[in-house]
Amino acid sequence: MEGFRILEIKQSVFESNDREADKLRQELKKNKVFLLNLMSSPGSGKTTTLRATIAALKDEFRIGVMEADIDSDVDAATIEKTGVKVIQLHTGGMCHLDAGMTRQGLEGLGVDDVDFAILENIGNLVCPAEFDTGSVKNAMILSVPEGDDKPLKYPLMFSICDVLLINKIDVLPYFDFDIERCKEYVLRLNPNMKIIPICARTGEGVEAFAQWLREQITAWNAD
Amino acid sequence: MEGFRILEIKQSVFESNDREADKLRQELKKNKVFLLNLMSSPGSGKTTTLRATIAALKDEFRIGVMEADIDSDVDAATIEKTGVKVIQLHTGGMCHLDAGMTRQGLEGLGVDDVDFAILENIGNLVCPAEFDTGSVKNAMILSVPEGDDKPLKYPLMFSICDVLLINKIDVLPYFDFDIERCKEYVLRLNPNMKIIPICARTGEGVEAFAQWLREQITAWNAD
After folding, report:
1. N or C terminus: fewer CB in 10 A for chain B?
2. Contact at 8 Å (CB) between A129 and A37?
3. Chain B residues whose C-beta sits inside 8 Å of any chain A C-beta
4. CA distance B83 to B87
5. Is the domain covering A5-218 a CATH 3.40.50.300 domain?
6. Which CATH number fits domain B5-216: 1.10.238.10, 3.30.70.270, 3.40.50.300, 3.20.20.70?
7. What whole-number distance in Å separates Cα of residue B44 and Cα of residue B144?
8. How many A-B residue pairs are in contact by the CB < 8 A criterion?
9. Is the pTM of this model over 0.80?
10. What ipTM goes with this model?
């Protein structure tokens, strides 16, 4: 018997998503909730990365996770095993989440007892980049098998994120992926991007990401 | 000096994309042009698969390729080296191509001397599945590193395609990907899907895809 809810998300009705996103961020600030928006292609390892990150941080923060998918609940079932609060969001075909949809997710999850909320966005490098969800920080994953040229092809996603996790570095020997070349492409688009190579499956590099998150959450609650 | 054009695609103005797609297909039929729409996540190996497929078929068909991307021209530059006709389409942020946009691409490419046209769609498992491009057949690639659960998460894409290439089978030993389980998920959604495991980089399985294409093109020109 699964312990998490599945919430069918409705299309937002707000005229200005940017205004809604700012409003949501102000409310999160007031309530001392840090919201991370995690994005990537399908299959880059978002859920595995979340599991490893939750393991590193769950004794320090009260974590709540929103798993957004067009269909299925496999990700929420995976996250539930970590013991943190989780809700599955179904977007009914929609390719991204905006601020109104994220608000529905947060209300469904319930954040009274959460200080670190995570939205695992739809697997898509295009549309989610165009919609501010109201998150405090945006994180993205690029996995080694996808290739180091992705910043050239999906520049907006690499421009709007605060941190890039280069995942699956354990398979670097089997793919033509040059980390230095990738970093160069990324930093040309986004000089402030924090770049962390990781292997979510083995846990390599995850502590560096956890440390980055600690700093961001502390800063968010401080000012 | 690059020999291919870059065409900035405009948003379509047609009321009914389905009607436009049918109209385009009828014109292609009349002109004996077979149009394949190739879709996948970012980094699944669309361009590498195309290169290998072109090498297998370029002595039998006059091939023309449309490389759709939000930005960059690295894919068109790669395809140009195969010696076939190619055009780079820029969608200016749009996450998919519809029939009107595909028509712009075909006009830009010029198909008077083409009998096998290929559209490499935007890397995205969500939005391109929702728009009929006017293609005769839809092909998709799922690569091993993405995971065998993707049919559960992106059911529409797996439902509307005629052929699925499971790419990067050379790295099967390094990933938890079960081909039989994947096939089962796919065939449950789409019992008519032709499934071909390949490794585009080494060429393994590419001849089976080429043979499938030969049969489809012959059938298209026959009836």
Report:
1. N
2. no
3. 41-43, 69-72, 74, 93, 95, 122-127, 130, 143-147, 149-150, 152-156, 168, 170-171, 174-175
4. 12
5. yes
6. 3.40.50.300
7. 9
8. 113
9. yes
10. 0.88
